[in-house]
Amino acid sequence: MRRRSLRLRLLITFGLGAFILSSMFASLTYMGVRHVLVSDQQQTDLRQSYSNAALIRSTLYTSPPDLANILNSIQHATGSNVLVQTHRQWLSKSNGAATTDVSSSIITSVDKGDITEQTLTVNHQIIFVVGVPIPAVETQVFEVFRLGGLEHTLRVLLLLMSAGALLTMLIGMAGGLWVTRRAIRPLVEVSEAAALIAQGELTTRLVVSRADEEVQQLTQSFNAMVSQLVERLERDARFASDVSHELRSPLTTLATTASVLEQHRDELSPAGQESLDLLQADLSIFQALVEDLLEMARSDAGASPLVMETVPAIELVRQSVRSAAQRHGISEPPIEVAEGVDEPWVRVDRRRFERVMTNLIDNAHRYANGAVAVRITVQDGQLAVNVDDAGAGVVLDERDQVFNRFFRGRAANDRGIARGTGLGLALVRDHVQAFSGAISIGESPEGGARFQILLPLVAAVHS
């Protein structure tokens, strides 16, 4: 499963962190303001209830018939609903007052002579009910205050707090974007530089500019590491090149000596002839090893730069196969071009591509009794060159390892079969990758191994 990028995770962390903190602050602020506003309003309404109860008591003493008018006057003045109960019977109430707003629990409490207040939520509205007993006339006064205006204020406050939380989240994400860009940029540069170095651009270095101390330290350490790596590679390449050059002279002498002995083969004893055959076989392997080492040393040291050309692919393959057959003195395998493939062009180094085909055909000759065919096709916008044989194939466990240097698989410890240097396929992989291509091993239609080269197609060059 593909993981999210570090930048995205940091951005999400900043945004969520800002949102959570702002939401917590907004919630605490809202709850605090709500408590203060509701408490203040309730205290004001409670004092107003005491005054209204005194007025009602006075009216009951002096002019009971005017009670309804007094209740309506109180309603118009305070915006509350007033209800009066005597001997558990509703004596009077203001216009619009409803007995359902007064719960049985508050009625019971006031009937016992206690001043009672209660906050309820009815139909999503906050109501504040105050009950005041008037024992002198065995009457209870209930006043219902609807806090609709306060609710509107709280809703507006909640909306503003929510908008503030969202705005804070956006600001946090913007700040996180700026911080992550600044923090991740050095990692991106290091990653890009490492990718270029892995592709062979050993001159790549990070630029030390005005930056934080940690970034400068990372840059300097990275550049120092790459310099030491390049120095070691160059030293190893020079060593391999020097050794190979030093071996060429004695190898030439040995080859000349073996050639002279071959001319006088009949004069040798059977044991001497057998020894001469072993000498020539190992000498051939030794010569191939020195040539491969020289080729790798030049490639690693950059002493043999690529000479890239845009060439017709089919003709290039034909020339390379012909050259490989002539070089090793073997029969030339047939070349089969798939239907619909019409003059594809590729960009390669001719000499190195010829070396690739030579090594693959020689590998098939050594281990699979020769290549059955070289098949050319186009797949997914790439040229596919398949070198097929009818041998035993390559086991799955070794298909990736055969391209490693000095890996010879099952042939390493068996002197009864043809032996190689373990460098030929490594050179093939290096050269193909230098062409921006890829090589893989599969199964041929004949049941043997298929070495498939994939190269990007390019536009034809017209003279």
What spatial form do the alpha-carbon principal axes imply?
A: rod-shaped
The major pleated sheet works out as: 7 strands, mixed
Number of distinct beta strands: 12
What is the strand content?
A: 15-25%
| Average pLDDT for all residues | 80
What is the ordering of alpha helices and beta strands? HHEEHEEEHHHEHEEHEEHEE
Helicity range: 55-70%
Tally of DSSP helical segments: 9
- CATH class bucket of the largest domain: Alpha Beta
The Cα radius of gyration reads 48 Å
Task: Kindly identify the CATH topology of the largest domain.
Answer: Heat Shock Protein 90
What CATH architecture label of the largest domain applies? 2-Layer Sandwich
Low-pLDDT parts are none
Distance between the termini: 49 Å
Number of domains: 3
Helix/sheet category = alpha+beta
For CATH, the homologous superfamily of the largest domain is named as: Histidine kinase-like ATPase, C-terminal domain
